[in-house]
Design a protein that fits this description.
The protein has six helices and 39 strands. By secondary structure, it is mainly beta. It has a four-stranded antiparallel sheet with strand order 1-32-31-30. It starts with 8 loop residues before the first strand and ends with a strand.
Length: 536
């Protein structure tokens, strides 16, 4: 029996009644996008208080169309008893094209969370009608992912945030390689086919769509300056790293310098990754950046940056030192030792044992499905779990996290949230050409928790971008409301804190995007608390 305090996960896919296979249509040509699929979103589409699950899926090759239902994206409704029901057809969410990622956010402030799905040849915006159905409003909204003069970009991921604090969620779309199936060459070693390295391709500009507040968006990529920073983007995360009241953007780029886009507060962004110390590792290397999370890991009130990468690189951790500066603490944190022989895609920084310190979860797998043949290392890997020891050092607890956690897989996307509302953060991870994993957090250590469900009034309805500070007898903690976590995936918008032994929260301080400050005092632990934005 593991110790009671150990973080424990159990994969309940068999009991969940979820029947889904992520199909990438593996081809002899090894088109690069085949290895990149697999987004997942945890969001409550019907406002019943339970997180539902949406999976993106691939398409037939070479048409890149969903020629039969086995390629459909899928929505599973949470029944509240550990099982889920496939409601894709009724919801109208089957989708078109070769899908990649998903971003959840209520862009029209009607109280129902909408979905944006990214893809190789199609991006789609689905409006949640509030009656269990969704409508494709991509054309009307003007968010097709087409770059003027270039065409449809290959979009990996996207994220919702209110960059101008006007109360309407804007959409940031992260694009990857300048890639064309017709001209893509076959790569390989000694006659063995392989996916080509991103080094062989140019990048593409990202897109920023400003929400006009009337159901339409304006492409402001040029005037905001974000399109001048051309990269090979895979992951996106948001945080106000310098506490100036405007959300900033971190983009993990693949074999290329990372971008930290500082929000200037006037509708423009400046790329400061190099100056801030997050463009390259402390050794001056660009990594194969994939998933990312942007949260305070040492409880000093300043959001830090975690990033997953490829075998031989380690997974970078950048500590926010203040004054716009970050320090690579990957080695000092212990992560180099634990991660340098891993490749990971999805990632999340959440307090899985409710001890008051955010831990790290990584969705591990090699890139090449024939990596054993080509590189003498396994393709399928178990996921990673790294416990925060409280001083920005981590211990690898993956091997102690339960029997099912040791099972290797071709993991890709990962999303996080409390699926059964018991106060423990769960995870859902996708598997290329296999079923997903539904990781229910079984940790039983007696620690306390609180989850805040935010309702914006002057701010956006989801409250995304709200910064939260809590104070208990054990000290202060910080978090923020965001759904953009990891790689091509979208996590629960609710804000979670582990409280350790504390049964009472002395103060909860909320800084809403509108500028409104709100304080709650003497709040009991172990509850999901709805907080509506105050009027002043």
């Amino acid at each position: 029996m593991p110790a009671a305090e150990a973080i424990q996960f159990e994969n309940l896919i068999a009991q969940s009644k979820i029947r889904f296979t992520l199909k990438n249509s593996l081809s002899p040509q090894r088109y690069t996008f085949e290895t990149m699929a697999g987004g997942v979103a945890l969001f409550d589409y019907n406002n019943d208080g339970l997180l539902d699950i949406f999976f993106t899926n691939g398409a037939e090759i070479p048409s890149l169309e969903k020629t039969n239902p086995s390629y459909w994206n899928r929505l599973f409704r949470n029944n509240g008893d550990g099982t889920f029901t496939d409601v894709t057809e009724k919801a109208g969410l089957a989708g078109i094209g070769y899908s990649m990622g998903v971003a959840a956010g209520d862009y029209d402030n009607d109280g129902f969370v909408d979905l944006y799905v990214t893809g190789v040849n199609r991006n789609q915006l689905f409006h949640n009608n509030g009656d269990g159905t969704f409508t494709d409003v991509t054309a009307k909204a003007g968010v097709s992912g087409v770059i003027p003069g270039y065409g449809k970009a290959w979009s990996i991921t996207a994220g919702w945030f209110d960059y101008n604090n006007d109360g309407h969620l804007d959409l940031f779309v992260v694009n990857y390689l300048d890639y064309n199936m017709k001209t893509a060459k076959l790569c390989g070693t000694q006659g063995i086919p392989a996916y080509c390295s991103p080094i062989d391709f140019l990048g593409t500009p990202n897109i920023l769509y400003r929400n006009n507040g009337d159901g339409t968006f304006t492409d402001v990529s040029q005037q905001s300056h974000i399109s001048q920073y051309v990269g090979k983007g895979m992951g996106i995360s948001f945080a106000d790293y310098d506490n100036d009241g405007f959300p900033d953007v971190f983009i993990s780029n693949d074999t290329f310098q990372n971008y930290l886009l500082h929000n200037n507060g006037d509708g423009t962004f400046t790329e400061v990754g190099l100056l801030a110390g997050v463009a390259y590792t402390g050794f001056g290397n660009a990594v194969a950046g994939m998933g990312t999370d942007f949260r305070d890991l040492d409880n000093d009130g300043k959001p830090d940056i975690f990033e997953t990468a490829m075998f031989g690189e380690g997974f970078p951790l950048y500590r926010n030192m203040g004054a716009g500066q970050f320090q690579d603490v990957t080695g000092a944190s212990g992560l180099t030792r634990f991660t340098s022989r891993l490749t990971a895609w999805g990632a999340g920084a959440f307090d899985f044992d409710n001890d008051g310190w955010k831990d790290l979860f990584t969705a591990n797998s090699d890139i090449l499905d024939n990596s054993m043949e080509l590189a003498h290392r396994p393709y399928a890997l178990p996921n990673g779990l790294f416990r925060n020891m409280g001083n920005l050092t981590f211990e690898d607890v993956s091997a102690k996290a339960g029997a099912s956690f040791q099972v290797p897989g071709a993991h890709r996307g990962a999303a996080f949230g409390d699926l059964n509302n018991d106060g423990n953060i769960d995870a859902v991870v996708t598997n290329l050409n296999g079923p997903p994993e539904i990781w229910i957090n079984r940790t039983a250590n007696g620690n306390h928790w609180i989850i805040l469900s935010l309702i914006g009034v002057k701010s956006n309805h989801d409250g995304l971008g709200t910064k939260v500070k809590i104070t208990t007898a054990l000290g202060a903690q910080y978090n923020q409301a965001t759904t953009a976590v990891g790689l091509n995936s979208s996590s629960d918008k609710r804000v979670h804190f582990g409280l350790g032994a504390a049964t009472m929260i002395d103060r909860i301080e909320l800084a809403w995007p509108s500028g409104i400050r709100q304080v709650l005092t003497n709040v009991k632990a172990d509850q999901i608390l709805t907080v509506k934005e105050s009027s002043r």
